[in-house]
Write a structure and sequence with these properties.
Lysozyme-like, six-stranded mixed β-sheet, 10 helices, 14 strands, globular, disordered C terminus
């Protein structure tokens, strides 16, 4: 229709199509979420396609081979092509050789990507803010993530979802990933709130709030004067991987944006059910999934569901709040399909 409008002269040549500010990009196409989204193409965005380091002086920014293994990015690119490793090794892949030859040139189309993405992996960043998270991932570790969620609810997309971000080991080919700004979970201490939580949180007459270290300035938070408060007023204790941990909850603004993003992703990707790993009684699984179960699992999952040595997104993360909220935003048909897909496993 747009082509017809242009051909008929209804759209003036050079007219700008202005973003509303809530869109994510999938295969070059924009999809609304209802949450504040900053793309890597925006002035305040974080661009994982760039090869230079973002947070050093320009004269030192160019990529160079690392002098010490593991201390800087191993390659200029911090992302890859989905299923490139499988095709190269002859391992099973949902892509045909013909599809891959088209895709490797940048030719992902939405229907093909919709057949391959079936997991949404949730991390916390232990960096505190999305700006710090990007600095650590991109400049120091040479990794990448599709989305970052800051404490004020701003979502940063750093790559098109067609790319294979480096965040979830064996699930990178089939997953979308998000890093949530949160200082993480730690073993309880008799002295009270464990470090570094005691350096990032303080109390006032309204309760606990996030107190950024002075060295971070405003932390890159887009909302002027924003004071982040945990959705639950006290530190939350719970078991992950059989170990008791304590952490502060996400902010309400983070939950609201994550719910909206989750609903959008589950609507865009029909193979991505809106649910999380459950046991036979329907309760959240808080341990790593067995290898055979992980191979067939579709839906939302935490980093700890994939690796025994991971504990994010931690015991405070409210899975039911996210899933229930996202299902309410989905159409009745989409919500029913997501629930049925997961319950049939």
């Amino acid at each position: 229709m747009l082509v017809a409008m242009v051909m008929s002269g209804c759209v003036r040549p050079g007219a700008e199509n202005v973003r509303r500010g809530d869109e994510i990009m999938v295969c070059g196409r924009l999809f609304h979420t209802g949450a504040p989204v900053v793309l890597w193409t925006d002035p305040d965005g974080y661009d994982a396609y760039r090869t230079e380091r973002r947070f050093v002086p320009w004269k030192d920014a160019a990529w160079s081979p690392p002098g010490t293994p593991g201390r800087s990015p191993e390659t200029p690119a911090r992302y890859g092509v989905r299923f490139a490793g499988a095709l190269a090794s002859g391992a099973p892949s949902p892509l045909s050789a013909e599809d891959f030859e088209r895709i490797r040139g940048g030719g992902w189309d939405l229907p093909t990507l919709q057949r391959t993405v079936d997991q949404f992996v949730i991390h916390y960043d232990v960096c505190g803010t999305s700006r710090q998270c990007f600095r650590v991932l991109h400049d120091i570790r040479g990794l990448s993530i599709h989305f970052m969620l800051d404490i004020d609810g701003t979502i940063y997309q750093t790559l098109d979802l067609k790319e294979r971000a480096w965040h979830a080991t064996t699930s990178n080919d089939r997953s979308i990933g998000i890093e949530i700004a949160n200082m993480g979970a730690y073993k309880p201490t008799e002295a009270g709130v464990p470090a570094p939580l005691d350096r990032w949180y303080a109390c006032d007459e309204r309760g606990w709030y996030i107190k950024l270290p002075e060295t971070m300035g405003d932390g890159g938070i887009r909302t002027p004067g924003f004071i982040g408060r945990p959705a639950r007023g006290e530190p939350v204790r719970g078991m992950i991987q059989g170990t008791e941990l304590v952490m502060f909850d996400l902010t309400p603004e983070q939950y609201d944006s994550l719910i909206r993003l989750t609903a959008a992703l589950c609507a865009i990707f029909p193979e991505l059910p809106c649910d999380y790993p459950r046991d036979s009684d329907g309760k959240l699984l808080t341990d790593v999934l067995p290898e055979d179960q992980m191979a067939t699992y579709r839906g939302l999952l935490g980093h700890y569901h994939m690796q025994k040595n991971k504990i994010d997104p931690g015991p405070a993360f409210d899975w039911e709040r996210v899933v229930s909220g996202a299902r309410k935003r989905l159409s009745p048909r989409e919500s029913s399909t997501s629930a049925n897909l997961q319950s049939s496993k």
